[in-house]
Write a structure and sequence with these properties.
The complex is a heterodimer of chains A (219) and B (353). Chain A contains 8 helices and 8 strands. Chain A is an alpha/beta fold. The longest helix of chain A has 15 residues. Chain B has 353 residues and is α/β, with parallel strands linked by helices. Chain B folds into 2 domains: 232 residues, Thiamin diphosphate (ThDP)-binding fold, Pyr/PP domains (Rossmann fold), CATH 3.40.50; 113 residues, Rossmann fold (3-Layer(aba) Sandwich), CATH 3.40.50. The chains are: A alpha/beta (219), B alpha/beta (353).
């Protein structure tokens, strides 16, 4: 169960699906009638980023803030000044896509004091147990702790985004439920959502499911 | 085979290398292959291997030379500008008849170029790259699974023929994520009686070197090496043939360009155009035979590349220029779209009427 807060952060091991989850979560908030800003704070990876979904976001009335050099050949870890506005003004919802691992979370540390002071946030750890370096709850916990230290903000929830890309079946996701629960037990942080591709879900969508409409695509 | 995991191409190369018995990695970070080094940095210390970030690409490739001399499986990885820096060392490795794996996750060039994907190091990879008469075995994966599979093949071929092998990928292939099954079998390690491992006072000492003081000996060594290359060209060329049985147009593409082209070929077939694709899996040795055979059947070829047209020269050579070869390309970090390739196919089929 996830209570929506004004600021939602998505952190995790690189390749865990943070960007995908952030974009889909922004859509979910938008459908609830909220005004939403999405911010790409990934200073680590120059490929496959939020900017790839800019058109879909804008069409839905969601504003995207991304680094000036996103999707260009400039490989500079710089963040746009508009980011400060997200924490200065509290009138809109903010969804932040943080870069992978502790390396990516260092950029978040700059803004953590503002987020902690306002105290209306969810900091969600995105976990994919099909990723080679987070195959077990123990390995995932190691990454969680590294990110918390770098980002200077504690996690409040876990999003289980276990998937095998386009080949993912419902069974693949179900197999990881016990792993996510074990991670919750050893970390003391609850599982707030399980992400499932929309086309795998039939019938009513429970509160514990985050349906995924948009997916990164490679030829 | 083990259970499936979701991996980036760069990670798949790294894990596949470890499983192929490569416990020594030397490199220097560069976008878009950095995950490969990062993965090695995390894994190698846990399994008793060596991960070393060298002070430069030049240092890294010479560390590869050293470890290979000692008979161990070893690799380095980089992206285009970094691979240019390694060329001197690669030539020395080829000249000393040493096996090694060099990974090039290509980005746009020339010069500093850009960080987005490219295939414009084709000439460098297939025609030598460094100085002197030599070749690398060059493998070109077109999926994350194939990145893993070709890594162990590259090590096996390099050991068998005592020469460096290159995995030639591009930024998109390195960064994309797909499910992968990694091999569980023990790697095929062969004896390396030439390695400098200490004589134990039981044999003559081995010498690993690329310097020949007597011109006749250097000529003899080069001739022997080219006998080996000839055998490899006849026996190790690999390719995939797709919808070629009745094809009148033959698309030739490797790596990411082949993934895009495959979609275009399927779409063109739906529109009634008889088109197929030959996808080189090795670009040295180049799959000359299937292309020469196709040249007797098809009306024309289309080379789809992320370069200004480099592989197109090998297609013309392999087909003795029997049929026209069109070029369909994007450069600068751009990838041809399936629509662009489809347009080229339609044009070759005789216009858009």
């Amino acid at each position: 169960m996830l209570n929506h807060k004004r600021v939602t952060l998505f952190c995790g091991h690189y390749g865990s699906g943070k960007t995908n989850i952030a974009v889909n979560y922004a859509f979910l908030l938008r459908k609830l009638g909220k005004e939403v800003n999405v911010a790409d704070m990934d200073i680590v990876n120059p490929y496959f980023r939020t900017k790839d979904s800019e058109k879909e976001l804008n069409d839905a009335g969601i504003n995207l803030i991304s680094p000036h050099y996103a999707n260009t050949n400039v490989d500079l870890p710089s963040l746009p000044q508009e980011l400060y506005g997200l924490f200065e003004f509290h009138d809109k919802y903010a969804v932040l896509d943080i870069g992978g691992d502790d390396r990516g979370a260092y950029a978040l540390g700059r803004f953590s004091p503002f987020i902690l002071e306002e105290n209306d946030y969810n900091n969600l750890f995105v976990a994919n147990f099909y990723r080679p370096l987070t195959r077990t709850p123990g390995e995932a916990l190691e990454v969680m702790r590294e990110i918390e230290i770098a980002g200077k903000i504690p996690f409040t929830g876990i999003v289980n985004n276990s998937n095998l890309g386009e080949e993912t079946t419902l069974e693949d996701v179900e197999k990881t439920v016990s792993l996510a629960e074990e991670l919750a037990r050893i970390s003391g942080i609850p599982v707030v959502k399980t992400a499932v591709k929309r086309n795998l879900i039939s019938g009513d969508i429970g509160d514990d499911i985050l349906p995924l409409d948009l997916q990164a695509k490679y030829y | 085979m083990s259970e499936k995991v979701l991996m980036k191409g760069n990670e798949a190369i790294a894990e596949a290398a470890i499983r192929a018995g490569c416990l020594h990695y030397f490199g220097y970070p560069i976008t878009p292959q950095t995950e490969l080094a990062a993965y090695m940095a995390k894994r190698m210390p846990k399994i008793g291997g060596t991960f070393l970030q060298a002070e430069s690409e030049i240092a890294a490739i010479n560390m590869v030379y050293g470890v290979s001399s000692a008979g161990k499986r070893v690799m380095t990885s980089s992206s285009s500008p970094g691979v240019s820096l390694k060329q001197e060392g690669i030539s020395y490795i080829a000249g000393a008849d040493l096996p090694a794996l060099i990974v090039n996750v290509q980005r746009g060039g020339p010069g500093l170029g850009g960080i987005q994907p490219s295939q414009s190091d084709y000439f460098q990879a297939t025609k030598g790259g460094g100085h002197g008469d030599y070749h690398l075995i060059v493998l070109t994966p077109a999926s994350v699974q194939e990145m893993a599979d070709l890594v162990s093949l590259a090590f096996d071929l390099a050991d068998k023929y005592r020469m460096p092998a290159m995995l030639l990928a591009d930024g998109t292939m390195g960064q994309m994520m797909e499910p992968v099954e990694l091999p569980d079998e023990a790697p095929n390690m062969i004896e390396k009686p030439w390695a400098v491992t200490g004589t134990q006072m039981k044999r003559e000492h081995n010498i690993v070197n690329s310097l020949y003081l007597v011109p006749e000996e250097l000529e003899k060594t080069n001739n022997e090496r080219f006998e080996r290359y000839k055998y490899i060209e006849e026996n190790e060329a690999r390719y995939e043939s797709f919808m070629m049985d009745d094809a009148e147009i033959c698309v030739v593409a490797f790596g990411i360009a082949a993934r895009v082209s495959r979609n275009a070929v399927v779409e063109a077939r739906k529109q009634g155009i008889k088109v197929g694709m030959i996808r080189p899996i090795t670009v040295w040795p180049f799959p000359k035979k299937p292309l020469a055979e196709a040249a007797d059947k098809v009306k024309s070829f289309i080379s789809v590349e992320l370069s200004m047209g480099q592989m197109i020269e090998d297609i013309k050579l392999a087909t003795s220029c029997k049929k026209p070869v069109d070029l369909c390309y994007r450069v600068g970090g751009m990838i041809p779209s399936p629509e662009q390739v489809l347009e080229s196919i339609k044009k070759a089929a005789g216009g858009n009427e």
